[in-house]
Amino acid sequence: MNIAQWLERTAALHPERPALFSGREMVCTYGQFHTRALQVAGWLAAQGIQPGDRVAIFMKNCPEYLIAQYGIWYAGAVAVPINAKLHGREAAFILENSGTGVVFTSPGLTEALTDAEAPGQIADITSDLWAGIFAEQATAASAARPRASDDLCWLFYTSGTTGRPKGVMITHRMLIAMSLCYETDCDPVRHDDTILYSAPMSHGAGIYNMMHVLKAARHVCPPSGGFDEAEIFDLARHFGSVQMFAAPTMVKRMTQVAKATGETGEGLRTVVYAGGPMYNADIIEAVDHFGPIFVQIYGQGECPMGITALSRHDVTDRTHPRWRERLGSVGRAQSAVEVAIGDAEGNPLPPGEHGEIMVRGDTVMPGYWQNPEATEKTIVNGWLMTGDMGYLDEDGYLTMQDRSKDMIITGGSNVYPREVEEVLLTHSAVTEVSVVGRPHPEWGEEVVAFVVGDADPGELDRLCIDNIARFKRPKDYIRIPELPKNNYGKVLKTELRKSFEEG
């Protein structure tokens, strides 16, 4: 089925219920949301867009984003979300690679595409062209075009930290399964809930819109168009029962600002965090301040938001004898997938054994867009080889250690950077840290820590000696003002390793 039918059903049942907001201002009801999406679909059909064609969205967070997205799906086309933080040339590569015919944009990004000579027709949401889509005489589609569950729905491009990004093919079935898993494994959505889009709608935040559409919840885009702690706390107080997606760095910043300003997080019901390592020290501090509002998920573009989940109870519980181990995990397999640990050949390993995390099920991609070679390397015997290393315990909790390429092998022994980072972050003067391997003529690699903060290296050394094996202890502590990150907030360890080559 076409997942956009969820909007059709909600609009039929609750046409007057508030749907889309810019800050506190309502932009449209569910009935109006549905009508505008049909008008977008009608306009796309008039431009020659057929079911299965690709239509991109290169916008900052705004209500029009969802109108365009559902219009694309109503037309039976494939949405291609592009992170608004990308350079125009990077966005142009995605448009060309995906064969996109039309791209919806917001101010500032239109010029970036024009300067990059990007292909396809550009429809800026502030233009007369966009306004004409909703004119009285505009032709609207009559209903969402039927689509098979395995038809392509969303073409998501990976962040591309090690080369050109690849297009992950995401089907209607995948998004439906992911949405239902959210209801079962993460947090049931209620009609009086509000989803707040403070992280990019092209990524984790936006992909959580569907279950909220199904339940006729409110969708709020902050006027800033992005992440602002004070704005989040204000909107949460105003709307109440707010759910949001946040990267671990965002959770940490929210905690720091709240403690400094006296904010309590009133109105925040659920914060789902994912997208990078959440260190125990940070989530313990967040729970101590905000209370039991946090849920963790683990996924990747190839299995969006759909591998494991660590429940609100597990994030908050301090009574279980292994609560710290569970808090350091990424939870248990979500309902629609199997999760296993594999050896170098992809053979499943028993609980407690370390290896590559593998997953299969209805939220796993069928492959990469026009890239059979990469697909063959990533989907092996029906399993998605995630490239992440970890282990499962007897109770099914998955602890993710690092990307396979980030593991350090020193003197024949494996060192997982996250284990060292967890220890260093317990020092009060360490703000951020990233551990990588540096080439060594005798040991192969040696452990090096890049540290943000003014901690004394001697104190950090003693901290490691007191908590981890000596071979895991960093041989050097390099102080830097900030860690290099990509547009999704992930630390670029490749850049840190490259700094060794550059001296």
Beta strand count: 25
CATH topology of one domain: the name is Rossmann fold
User: What's the helix count?
Assistant: 17
Describe the sheet with the most strands.
9 strands, mixed
Q: Considering DSSP H and I runs of 4 or more, what fraction of the residues is helical? A: 25-40%
Molecular shape? globular
Note down, in words, how this protein is organized.
With 503 residues, the protein is of the alpha/beta class. Among the domains are: 1-183, Rossmann fold (3-Layer(aba) Sandwich); 407-501, ANL, C-terminal domain (GMP Synthetase, Chain A, domain 3). The protein is 33% helix and 27% strand. The chain contains 17 helices and 25 strands. The protein has a nine-stranded mixed β-sheet with strand order 2-1-10-9-11-12-13-14-15. Helix 4 packs across helix 5 and helix 10 (248-261) crosses helix 11. The chain is globular. The termini are far apart.
Give the tags:
globular; Rossmann fold; GMP Synthetase, Chain A, domain 3; alpha/beta; 503 residues
Map the helices and strands.
Layout: H1 5-13, E1 18-22, E2 25-29, H2 30-46, E3 54-58, H3 63-74, E4 78-81, H4 88-98, E5 102-105, H5 109-115, E6 121-124, H6 128-133, E7 152-157, E8 167-171, H7 172-186, E9 194-196, H8 209-214, E10 218-221, H9 229-239, E11 242-246, H10 248-261, E12 268-273, H11 280-290, E13 294-300, E14 303-310, H12 312-316, H13 323-327, E15 332-333, E16 337-342, E17 355-361, H14 372-378, E18 379-380, E19 383-392, E20 398-403, E21 408-410, E22 413-415, H15 417-424, E23 430-440, E24 444-453, H16 457-467, E25 476-479, H17 493-501
Parallel strand pairs: 1-10, 3-4, 3-5, 5-6, 9-10, 9-11, 11-12, 12-13, 24-25
Antiparallel strand pairs: 1-2, 7-8, 13-14, 14-15, 16-17, 17-19, 18-19, 19-20, 21-22, 23-24
Helix pairs in contact: 1-2, 2-3, 4-5, 10-11
